[in-house]
Design brief:
CATH topology: MetI-like fold
Number of helices: 14
Number of strands: 2
Helix content: over 70%
Radius of gyration: 28 Å
CATH class: Mainly Alpha
Number of domains: 1
Order of helices and strands: HEEHHHHHHHHHHHHH
C-alpha cells in the first residue's frame, strides 16, 4: 500500500516567515546605520572621487574647471622646486618626530607603569597636551621660543649660552617645531605603550628572575618583544600623522623662514586656499595618498620579521 507524502505547506509557511523576519531585521539594521553611511558617502567617498577628477583639471574653486589631464602631476615632478622642498622638509620632520615621540613615550610608559603613589596624576599630566587645542599650545610655545624675552633663551643664558632666534632662523625653526610636536603628541603613544605593558603577564618576569636575568635583560628579552604589536601600531599611526602636520606649522612659523618649515600639507594649503589652485593641490593630495599607502603597505609586510604576537 502506497504512502502518500505529507504536504509541505506548514514548512513553506515557516520558511517564508523566517525570510520575512530576516529581511525586516536587515532593513532595520541598515536603517540604523543609514545616517553614518550617508555621512561617510557624502563627506568621504564623494570628495575622494571629486578630488581625483579635480586633480586632472585647472580649477580655481569658483570658475569652470579646465581639463588638463596629467599636466599637474608632470609639473609637480619636473618644474616645481617648492614641491621638492616641501617633501624634504616633511621627511626631516618625520625622521625627527617619530623616533623622539615613540622613544620618549616608551620611557614615560615605563615610569608610569610603576606602582608608586600619585602615578595616576602623572599619567594625566602627560596626556593633557593631547586633548589641548593645538593653536593655544603653539601660541604658548611661540612666547617660550621668543629670542629676547623667551624662557628657553633665558634658561640658556644662565649657562652662558646665547640662544638663537628659534622661529626666525632657518636652521633652528624645524627643530623647534619638532620639540613642540613631541611635547604635544607624546601622550597618546604613552597610553598605548602603557596598555601594552600592563598586558604582559607577570609570569614571564618571574621566570626571567628565576633564570637570573638582570633588569636590562628582562626589558630587552621580555618587555620589548611583547611590546612590538603596540610599537607596530604606533609606527603606522605616527607616520601617517607626521605627514599630515599642519596646525603647529601654521601658527608657529607660517612655513618660514625661507620655506624652511613649509611641509607638504602646508604647501597643499597654500596652493588650494592662498593661490586658488585647487586642481594642483588635489594632485598633491593624491601623491601624498600614494606615498602613505605605499609605506604603510611596506610596514605591514615587514611586520612578520619583528612583531611578536603572544
Amino acid at each position: 500500500m502506497a504512502v502518500r507524502a505529507r504536504p509541505l505547506t506548514l514548512s513553506s509557511a515557516r520558511l517564508s516567515a523566517a525570510r520575512r523576519r530576516w529581511w525586516r531585521q536587515a532593513f532595520e539594521g541598515w536603517l540604523f546605520i543609514a545616517p553614518v553611511m550617508i555621512g561617510v558617502l557624502a563627506f568621504y567617498f564623494v570628495p575622494i572621487v571629486v578630488s581625483l577628477y579635480v586633480s586632472l583639471t585647472n580649477w580655481d574653486g569658483l570658475t569652470t574647471a579646465d581639463w588638463v589631464g596629467l599636466r599637474n602631476y608632470e609639473r609637480l615632478f619636473t618644474r616645481d622646486r617648492y614641491f621638492r622642498d616641501s617633501l624634504r622638509n616633511t621627511l626631516f620632520y618625520v625622521v625627527g618626530h617619530i623616533p623622539l615621540t615613540i622613544g620618549l613615550a616608551l620611557i614615560l610608559a615605563l615610569l608610569c607603569n610603576r606602582k608608586v603613589r600619585g602615578v595616576i596624576w602623572f599619567r594625566t599630566a602627560f596626556f593633557i597636551p593631547v586633548i589641548t587645542n593645538v593653536v593655544a599650545i603653539s601660541l604658548v610655545w611661540s612666547f617660550f621660543f621668543a629670542p629676547r624675552s623667551g624662557t628657553l633663551n633665558w634658561f640658556l643664558s644662565l649657562f652662558g649660552i646665547g640662544g638663537p632666534s628659534w622661529l626666525s632662523n632657518s636652521q633652528w625653526a624645524m627643530p623647534a617645531v619638532i620639540i613642540v610636536s613631541v611635547w604635544f603628541g607624546v601622550g597618546f603613544p604613552m597610553i598605548i605603550l602603557l596598555a601594552g605593558l600592563q598586558g604582559i603577564p607577570e609570569m614571564y618576569y618571574d621566570a626571567a628572575k628565576i633564570d637570573g636575568a638582570s633588569a636590562w635583560a628582562r626589558f630587552r628579552y621580555v618587555t620589548l618583544p611583547l611590546l612590538t604589536p603596540a610599537l607596530f601600531f604606533l609606527s603606522i599611526t605616527q607616520f601617517i600623522s607626521s605627514f599630515q602636520v599642519f596646525g603647529i606649522i601654521y601658527v608657529l612659523t607660517g612655513g618660514g623662514p625661507a620655506n624652511a618649515t613649509s611641509v607638504y600639507i602646508y604647501y597643499i594649503y597654500q596652493n588650494a586656499f592662498q593661490n586658488s589652485r585647487m586642481g594642483y593641490a588635489s594632485a598633491m593630495a593624491w601623491i601624498l595618498f600614494a606615498v602613505i599607502a605605499t609605506i604603510t603597505f611596506v610596514q605591514w609586510k615587514l611586520q612578520k620579521r619583528w612583531v611578536v604576537y603572544d
